[in-house]
């Protein structure tokens, strides 16, 4: 029984050490692992104008303004605490909607507007048929982010 | 442990597998058939994603199975290292290619889903990247397990790799909670009620149960083949090193 006990202890200790190493290195690289920054992160860190990064949040309702050439569009992205103006020229994904999640990649310009060269739609984890969504909204029991963001 | 020990004998395992396998195979066929029928025929389109949401019925169960297979593989690898049961290693080796296939299905369907919904086939966010690492761990494990002529050595080194890679499992599961990702958080396994309407949860769970039975069926087949292969190799080895019968070629033997 003795060597089995020892091998068991060895495997358990090895896994614990490995887990600790993984936790520490993931914590150290957190800034590189996040896929996007929230508007609050941007307000806090103030990235330099020439740095490319991604921002993510909810598209503010009734903030989407289409330009004259039909390809340019501007909208505001919020995490409910802070908001950023985004300007973009190009095709928007099908799921791009006011009140829904969005991730934009680009740079901040001098006056704090975010010039995006790519816009991705981010959806949340709720799935339901349209009738159920409508019924929930009608009865006032809707509790998703879409209605919560302005 | 002594209760479990009885099933650690390959002969007993094979007898048990022979009895269970027809049941898992038929259950898998029925559940997957029903899941596909309900998922693609009767479940409603999503209020945001429309019919594209049906990719979920294949994508999510294969993602669960990719994680489950690896967890099963790591547990067997640990049992093989600690208690030195050869059967544990055989089961771990048997599970690896099945898990790798589930991971490939998960990644492929995920890309097909990502393009129309997010606007991109691939994004290097924490969830997608950690699942890709899972695939590489599977492939590395398979390569390492087969890289040695000595079975014991291959068993042990691949078992260590399986255990090291197990650190990735919680990272995959919680990546969507720990970091900002393009991938959305968990809908089913979360605190509180699932965020999926029951009309869509039903086909999802049918498919998941079906995939689980499919995994069991494939594992039984693979483990049976691997045990026979090991027995064959042992027989060949024994014959090659056996003393010659009748003293026909005494010139080549050492005695």
Explain the overall architecture:
The complex is a heterodimer of chains A (150) and B (255). By secondary structure, chain A is an alpha+beta fold. Chain A folds into two domains: 2-31; 34-148, Nucleic acid-binding proteins (OB fold (Dihydrolipoamide Acetyltransferase, E2P), Beta Barrel). Chain A contains five helices and six strands, in the order αααββββββαα. Chain A has a five-stranded mixed β-barrel. Residues 145-150 of chain A have low confidence and may be disordered. Chain B has 255 residues and is mainly α. Chain B has one domain (21-184, 201-231). Chain B has helices spanning 2-5, 10-42, 56-83, 86-118, 126-145, 151-165, 168-178, 198-241. The longest helix of chain B has 44 residues, at 198-241. Chain B is globular, with a radius of gyration of 22 Å. Residues 250-255 of chain B have low confidence and may be disordered. Classes of the chains: A alpha+beta (150), B mainly alpha (255). The interface between A and B is large, with 43 and 42 residues.
* End-to-end distance of chain B: 46 Å
- Please trace the helix and strand order of chain A, writing H or E for each element: HHHEEEEEEHH
Total number of β-strand segments of chain B? 0
* Fraction of residues in helix of chain A: 25-40%
The total count of helices of chain B amounts to 8
Shape of chain B: globular
What name goes with the CATH superfamily of the largest domain in chain A?
Nucleic acid-binding proteins
CATH architecture field of the largest domain in chain A: Beta Barrel
Can you tell me the number of structural domains of chain B? 1
Structural class by sheet pairing and helices of chain B: mainly alpha
Give a short account of the largest sheet of chain B: none
Instruction: Give the proportion of residues in helices of chain B.
Output: over 70%
Counting copies of identical and different chains, the oligomeric state is heterodimer
The ordered H/E elements of chain B are: HHHHHHHH
Number of separate helices of chain A? 5
Rg of chain B (C-alpha, Å): 22 Å
> What is the rounded distance between the termini of chain A?
66 Å
């Amino acid at each position: 029984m003795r060597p089995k006990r020892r091998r068991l202890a060895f495997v358990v200790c090895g896994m614990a050490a490995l887990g600790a190493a993984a936790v520490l290195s993931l914590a150290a690289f957190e800034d590189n692992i996040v896929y996007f920054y929230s508007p609050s992160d941007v307000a806090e860190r103030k990235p330099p104008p020439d740095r490319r990064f991604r921002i993510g949040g909810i598209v503010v309702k009734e903030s989407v303004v289409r330009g004259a050439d039909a390809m340019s569009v501007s909208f505001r992205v919020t995490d409910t605490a802070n908001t950023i103006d985004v300007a973009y020229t190009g095709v928007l994904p099908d799921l791009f909607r006011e009140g829904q999640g969005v991730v934009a990649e680009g740079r901040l310009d001098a006056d704090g507007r975010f010039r995006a060269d790519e816009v991705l739609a981010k959806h949340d984890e709720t799935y339901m048929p349209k009738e159920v969504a409508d019924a929930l909204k009608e009865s006032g029991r809707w509790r998703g982010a879409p209605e919560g963001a302005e | 442990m002594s209760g479990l020990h009885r099933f650690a004998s390959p002969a007993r395992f094979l007898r048990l597998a022979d009895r269970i396998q027809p049941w898992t195979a038929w259950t898998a066929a029925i559940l997957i058939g029903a899941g596909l029928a309900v998922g693609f025929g009767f479940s409603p389109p999503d209020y945001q994603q429309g019919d594209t949401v049906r990719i979920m019925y294949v994508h999510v169960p294969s993602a669960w199975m990719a994680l489950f297979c690896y967890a099963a593989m790591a547990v067997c690898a640990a049992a093989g290292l600690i208690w030195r049961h050869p059967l544990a290693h055989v089961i771990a080796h048997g599970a690896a290619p099945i898990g790798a296939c589930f991971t490939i299905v998960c990644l492929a369907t995920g890309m097909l889903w990502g393009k129309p919904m997010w606007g991109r086939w691939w994004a290097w966010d924490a969830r997608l990247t950690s699942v890709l690492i899972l695939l590489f761990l599977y492939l590395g494990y398979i390569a390492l397990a087969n890289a040695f002529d000595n079975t014991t050595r291959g068993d042990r080194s691949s078992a260590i790799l399986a255990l090291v890679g197990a650190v990735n499992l919680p990272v995959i599961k919680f990546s969507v909670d720990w970091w900002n990702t393009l991938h959305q958080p968990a809908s089913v396994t979360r605190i509180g009620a699932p965020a999926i309407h029951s009309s869509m949860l039903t086909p999802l769970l049918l498919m998941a149960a079906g995939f689980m039975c499919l995994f069991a069926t494939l594992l039984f087949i693979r483990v049976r083949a691997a045990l026979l292969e090991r027995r064959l190799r042992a027989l060949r080895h024994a014959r090659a090193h056996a003393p010659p019968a009748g003293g026909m070629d005494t010139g080549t033997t050492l005695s």
